[in-house]
Amino acid sequence: LGSKNNSDARDVLSRAAADGIQRMTYRQIFTVYNAYVKAFRDDRMDQYMAGHDGTEPLSKDSWFQRIFFMTCMCYWVARPLALTTADGRAFIVANWASKDPRDKPHSLIEWTAEVLSWLMQWLWSFLGPSELRKRYEEFGNKKTEIGKKCFGEREAEMMTLNFLVVDPHLQGSGRGKRLLNAVHNIADDEGRACWLISSGEHNISFYVKHGYRVVGGFELAENNPKWKGPKLMCPVMVREPKATQDADSKH
């Protein structure tokens, strides 16, 4: 599995545990889901991905959406780097670099999560609402295109930040910062950059404070007549490893 990378990650996670940060567990999935729903209730990009037109009152997710999301979270627990604090009410999910051996399944649990994830995606392609399938495909294609455009082959060496969620009642408590730092410490120890797609321009200042910069972006719903809300701009941001930041600051 790459002993140096694994030992570095374990050391960082041990330090993070002293700050109340732990790996996400299966028993926390319902709490994690509820924190996500609360945190993104008014997020325009999330409304688009949930099938709304940007004007109607928000409705609850369908049973299929809830099952799909929770199955994805089971995958996150088993495979990528999923960390939490406040017992699931604040969490972060990041993917290992695709060239990192840790990005591949190794145990029975990890292989089971891989198969379940593939099965849910297959069921989604047949049973999911057509409009939702269209929007997820749009996002997936644009994410792939922007990754290649902004980073090229380097993307395979970078960690990807997928979610950073803090329950609204806990926002301002510093938990988001601590979760980010836990992932950044792993990336810094391994000399890796991190990149993310922000759900809107309103989040840029937060990530800039934590070492990110905007390197590109794309627009969702630009050719979707069913979306009647405002423009959905998705900035792409990158954070270089600390050693690179320190070297750049000297020049």
Summarize the structure.
The chain has helices at 3-17, 29-39, 44-49, 63-78, 108-127, 130-151, 175-190, 204-208, 242-249, and strands at 22-23, 81-85, 90-95, 159-166, 194-197, 213-220, 232-239. By secondary structure, the protein is an alpha+beta fold.
Tell me what the structure shows.
- It holds the Pfam family Acetyltransf_7.
- A seven-stranded mixed sheet has the order 1-2-3-4-5-7-6, sandwiched between helices.
- The chain has one domain (3-249): Gcn5-related N-acetyltransferase (GNAT) (Aminopeptidase), CATH 3.40.630.
- Helix content is 47%, strand content 16%.
- Strand 4, helix 7 (175-190) and strand 5 (194-197) form a beta-alpha-beta unit.
- It is an alpha+beta fold and 251 residues long.
- The radius of gyration is 18 Å and the shape is globular.
Q: How do the strands and helices of this protein lay out in sequence?
A:
Layout: H1 3-17, E1 22-23, H2 29-39, H3 44-49, H4 63-78, E2 81-85, E3 90-95, H5 108-127, H6 130-151, E4 159-166, H7 175-190, E5 194-197, H8 204-208, E6 213-220, E7 232-239, H9 242-249
Parallel strand pairs: 4-5
Antiparallel strand pairs: 1-2, 2-3, 3-4, 5-7, 6-7
Helix pairs in contact: 1-7, 4-5
Protein name: N-acetyltransferase domain-containing protein
Domain N-acetyltransferase: 79-233
GO molecular function: acyltransferase activity, transferring groups other than amino-acyl groups
